[in-house]
Amino acid sequence: MDVTRRDMLGMASAAGMAVASEPLLAAAQTGVRGGLPAGPWAEVARRLTDFARADLADKGFPGMTIAFAGPGGVQASFGVGLADLARRKPVAPDQLFQIGSITKSLTVMALFVLADRGKLDLDARVQDLLPEHPLPPEPITLTHLIDHSSGLPNLLEDPAMVDLPGGRLWTGFTPGSRYSYCNLGYALLGSVIERVSGMSYPLALETLVLKPIGMKQAVPVFRTPDRARYAAGHIRLREDMPWFPRTPLTEARWFEFSHAAGSVAATGPDMIAYLRYLAGVAKGKGGPLFSDKLAERYRTPTIDSSPPGARYGNGLHTLDVDGRPCFRHTGGIHGFSSAFTLDRESGFGCYASVNVGGAGGYRPVEITEYALPLLRAVAANQPLPAVRTPQPRPAIKDGARIAGQYRSADGTAFTIVERGGALAIIANGRTAAIGAAGPDSFVTDHPALAPYTLALEEGGARIRLGGRLFGRGQAPAAQPPSARLAPLVADYYNPASWGGRPQVFAVGDRLFLGTAELVEASDGSWRFKEPAMAMERFWFTNRIDGRPQVLIMSGSRYGRFKDRNL
């Protein structure tokens, strides 16, 4: 599930890039299924396999599952690398991978089925459908939720279970006025599906969508009895440190999960069925789920999204890839990262998923894009395009602007140097990597520089690391937390939450959540200073001896874990 806004916040002050010390692909096997004929179609699979192997080796990932759908029923599903790093088991094409936020498009299909049967108006007000939920007074329609334009905060918890000082949710902008990715909206859509269908969300999705379009092995909920069917998910061994390529991995914890924003797991053949159905919708064909009239609505994006030039609608991004209009969605969840791209004109598509999550925003988009010109070339009986390899991680732009020696008032010092277009950071006689986390923030895995995220201030003349200021060439005066803010400064933690380990810092009378500055509102909550992130609100509550023991982040509850001086 793409927790995009929370990823952007840098709540845990850790982002970024891995270090499997041994080749992960030594025991890899590749199988192909789906009636793939010999000849040029096999060459497409070989090209994608080579690309996947190179991508896995570069990133330090265990395995990848790949599926593509081409013309005339041509299709293939195959695995590369390891499904289980500890047990050295290869990826099999019939294993389940969690597809994360790609689930959203399936959730919308279920809504369209109900609308086609006359049970639902897609333009209905959510407040009328879910009157018992603590929704804000501003009119919010199902379409606003579907297209991430509701203005609601982004959280993954059940909306009926969130902790809301004031008793109800809010909006950060006028519903329908702009796009802001919101998993909460899809939680509400899941509740609407249950209310209208009379079934649980998993049963409704399976009955209304998965089985009718041929996703026979897919599951709409993560359940322990199904665990043996899955590839093992992986995360970095040190979740408190940033992600860098080839960082040590460990198996992700298993959890049971049912959520309309991202609880589908599927095999490669399931995703071929998904791509085939979506190719029909791209041509205005809604069967077997809903009418062609609704298919026209489903395939039409409604609001500008990201990246620039893309538009969003009905759980899908529409954007140009190599000058051709495509559908795309990605998904990130605890232990898995997924993507698909489908050429709307040809109907050719490719899906891929790796069994690693939390990898600095990585999604296997490149391989899905590479598949499309290969499929088009073979279909047109033309030579295959040039071989592609995974693109290297982009270098930090204008690295020279932050190069230099930095000092803080407490005597800590580090040096940022540029070598061959890449940056490195030197402290205590040790050199470590440094990578971009945002336009003006950088991450490092240097053990002496916790919390690992550096934020530029004053155009690079100063760098903030947590609550410390470093000046280039000369140490700035220390700015300890003010008496008002000092009690708030701490690490907060909730082992059941998706929001990481929020870290709160203060520099004088300025408060920061990770690298993002907060400002206090008249209602006692805190908001991001950046207007584009106005949807989120934060409260510090349950004070003991003046120190808050709980941080409520847009409804998610985190307990005080450790103070900054520990």
UniProtKB/TrEMBL annotation:
Any coiled-coil regions, as ranges: none
Record's keyword annotation contains Repeat: no
One GO MF term: hydrolase activity
InterPro entries: AmpC-like, Beta-lactam-related, Beta-lactam/transpept-like, TAT_signal
A Pfam short name: Beta-lactamase
Class of this enzyme: hydrolase
Domain named Beta-lactamase-related: residues: 50-363
Gene3D superfamilies: DD-peptidase/beta-lactamase superfamily
Protein name in UniProt: Serine hydrolase domain-containing protein
EC number: 3.1.1.103
Keywords: Hydrolase
